[in-house]
Amino acid sequence: MSDTQNLTLVQAVRDGLHTELREDEDVVVMGQDVGRNGGVFRATEGLYDEFGGDRVVDTPLAESAIVGCAVGMAAMGMRPVPEIQFSGFMYPGYDQIVSHMARFRARSRGRFSLPMTLRAPYGGGIRAPEHHSESKEAFYAHEAGLKVVIPSTPRDTKGLLAASIRDPDPVIFLEPKLIYRAFREEVPEEPYTVPIGEAATRREGDDVAVFTYGAMTRPTLEAAETLAEEGIECEVLDLRTISPLDREAIVDAFEHTGRAAVVHEAPRTGGLAGEITAILQEEALLYQEAPIERITGFDVPYPLYALEDYYLPSATRIEEGIRAAAEYEP
Amino acid sequence: MTEGVFDRAYDDPVRVLDEDGTVVGDVPDLGEEELVGIYRDMRLARHFDGRAVSLQRQGRMGTYPPLSGQEGAQVGSAAALAGNDWIVPSYREHGAAFVRGLPPEKTLLYWMGHGDGARPPDDVNVFPIAVPIASQVPHAVGGAWASKLRGDDDVFVCYFGDGATSEGDFHEGCNFAGVFDTPTVFFCNNNQWAISVPRERQTRSATLAGKAEAYGFDGVQVDGMDPLATYKVTKAAVEKARDPSESRLRPTLIEAVQYRFGAHTTADDPTVYRDDDEVERWRRKDPIPRLERYLRSEGVLDDERVDRIEAEVETRVADAIEAAESVPRPDPRALFEHAYAELPPELEAQYAEAETLREKAGDAAFLGE
C-alpha cells in the first residue's frame, strides 16, 4: 500500500494540482491570486514557489480572458487549469464557456480539442458576502460538450481533479467550499485518478435511494443515520459527476428501493433533481412506489447569510423529505 | 523597418500606394512572384465573394458575409506571415484564410451549413471562424501565450472589426497580451460600419489604433485598402512579436482603415443606413485596381498576365463551388460526433433513438422533401 497524507478537501485540491503540474509540463494553473498568494482558499499554496510564475500564473482580474486565453492555450495542446475565484464570478466568462470552451471540438469537427479544467469554489454555508454562495451547476450540466465534476471527499477530489486535467474534453470542476476544511481523509501521495461519470455508494439501504453531491452529501448521510434509528434504511449515492450522469447507478439504486429523494442546494426549478426524476420515470417507472422528493434550495435569489441556514437543505429538511418518500402510501 | 512603422502618430496611417497606384511611401521588399501573388489572391477573394453572394441569391447557399473592399487588408496582412504562424479570424476573413491555405470549398461548405466546412485541414494554421464578436481575441492571446511558454516562435494574428473594439473581450484580450507580452498581432479591420452603427458610435477615441496606448504596446494605423501598406505593417508587427526589442512589447494593434463595399451579410440592406455617395467615395480607393496600376507601371503585369490570372481565379472558384455542391448532406451521425472525444453512453442512446425513428419514418419525414 502506498503512502498517504491526512488531507482536507482543499488540501487535496492543492495536492492534485501539485501532482499534475509535476507529471505534465503542459499543465498551467492560472487565475486571480493563485500565484504568490497561494489562492484565497490556499488551494494553490506553494505551487508558485515550486513551479514558477510561468506555470502558476497570477492573471489580471478578468474572467472572460482567463477562460478565453485558456481556450487558446488548450487548442494548442496545453492543459490549462484556470481558476475562477468564486463560482458567482463565472458569468463574465460565461460566453467563453458556452460559445467556445464547450463547443470548440464540435465546431472544428474534431480538429481542435480543449483539454482544460475550469475550477471554481461553489455553494453556500460559509457566511460569505453576496454573490459568493450560489450553486449554478445546472447551467453547465445543460451545456453539451462540457463535463461537470463535483467531489465531496478529499480522496475523490485529488483523483477526480487528475482525471479532469488528463481528460481530452473541457471539464467544469466545482469545489464545495463549505467542506473545504470540514474533515480529513487519507489521500494517497502517488498519482491516481477517479473516473469521471461514476457515482459512489456512500451508504447502503433498501428503503429509499437518496441522490446527492458536493456539500450536501454530509448532511444527507447524517439524516440517513437518524432515519436508520427509526427503521428507515437509505441508500445514499454521491453522484460525483453531474454531467455525464451515472444513469446506470441511479436506476440500480432506485430499482431495489422503489422510493427516492434528491438533495441539492441549487434552486429546484431546472435543477438536477428534475433531471434525475425524469431518468427514473423513463427507465424505472414500474418500480416506483412513491413520489420522488426534491429536497433543494428554494427558487429565490440566494439570501444574505442571516437566512442561509433556512435556504440550504439541512439535515432536518433532508430527514423530513426522505421520511415523506419512505412513508408514502397511495 | 520597425522604426518607421511604429514611430508615428496614431492618426498618421502607413501608406505605400495612393489611390492611383502611385508610390507615396517605402515599398516593402517583395519579389515579383510575391507581388503577383498578392494581386492574384485579392482577385481570388473578390471573385469568390461575387460568386458566393450570387449563390446565396440563387438559394444555393445560406446567409453569407461579403468581404468586397477588404481584400487589401486581408491579403496584404496574411501574406506577411511565416509558415507556422496562425490566424484567428472572425467570420469575414475568407481572403486571409485562403492566403493561409484554406481551400475555398471549405468556406463555401461552412456557409452552406456543413460542419465539415468548419474544420480547417490539419496542415492549415487557421482557427475556426468565431461568430460572437471579439470572442476570438482571448483565444489568439492564449494560443500565442502557449507558443511563448513552449519556446516556439509562432505568431498569432487575430482579426476583428471596428465594432469588436467596444467589446469586453477585446479589452481583456489586449490587456492580457500586454501583461504577458504574448506574440499576438491584433488586426482591426475597421470597415466603418458594424452593421448599421458607424465607427463614430463605437467610441469617442480619435483612432482605434490609439487604444493600444492603454495596453502599453504599439498601435498603428494603416491604409487598409493599400495591400502593400498592410503587408508592410503586418510584417513589422510579426517580426517584433517573434523577436522583440528591449524597448517594445511583442503585441501590436493595427487599425486597417477600409470600407466594406457590400452589405454586412446577405441578410442586410445597407441602403437603409448609408449613402451611395459615401460608397462611391470609398470605391475609388479599391485595393485591386490600385495594385494593378502599380504592377503594370513596374512592368510586372500586362494584359496577358492579368487575363491569365483572371482565368485561373475563375477556374479555381468554379472548381470550389462544384466540389462544395457535390458534398452530400452529412449523415445524422455527424450530429453526435465531436461533441466529446468519446461519445458518452447517453448520447449513444439519443443517437439510437433518432436512428430508430429515422429508419421507421424515412428521411423525407425529417427533410420535408
Automatic annotation (TrEMBL), chain A:
Residues making up the signal peptide according to the UniProt record: none
Keyword Transferase set for record: no
Domain (Transketolase-like pyrimidine-binding) ranges: 7-182
Broad EC category: oxidoreductase
MF-aspect GO terms: oxidoreductase activity
Cofactor(s) it depends on: thiamine diphosphate
One Pfam family from the record: Transket_pyr
Organism: Halorubrum glutamatedens
PANTHER family for this protein: PYRUVATE DEHYDROGENASE E1 COMPONENT BETA SUBUNIT, PYRUVATE DEHYDROGENASE E1 COMPONENT SUBUNIT BETA
Keywords: Oxidoreductase, Thiamine pyrophosphate
Presence of the UniProt keyword Oxidoreductase in the record: yes
Record GO biological process: organic acid metabolic process; sulfur compound biosynthetic process
Annotated SUPFAM superfamilies: Thiamin diphosphate-binding fold (THDP-binding), TK C-terminal domain-like
Descriptive protein name: Alpha-ketoacid dehydrogenase subunit beta
EC assignment: 1.2.4.-
From TrEMBL, chain B:
UniProt superkingdom: Archaea
Keyword annotations of the record: Oxidoreductase, Pyruvate
GO molecular function ontology, one term from the record: oxidoreductase activity
A GO biological process held by the record: organic acid metabolic process
Positions of the Dehydrogenase E1 component domain: 40-332
Gene3D superfamilies referenced in this protein's UniProt entry, alphabetically: 3.40.50.970
InterPro entries: Alpha-ketoacid_DH_E1_comp, DH_E1, PdhA/BkdA, THDP-binding
PANTHER family documented for this protein: 2-OXOISOVALERATE DEHYDROGENASE SUBUNIT ALPHA, MITOCHONDRIAL
Protein name, UniProt field: Pyruvate dehydrogenase (Acetyl-transferring) E1 component subunit alpha
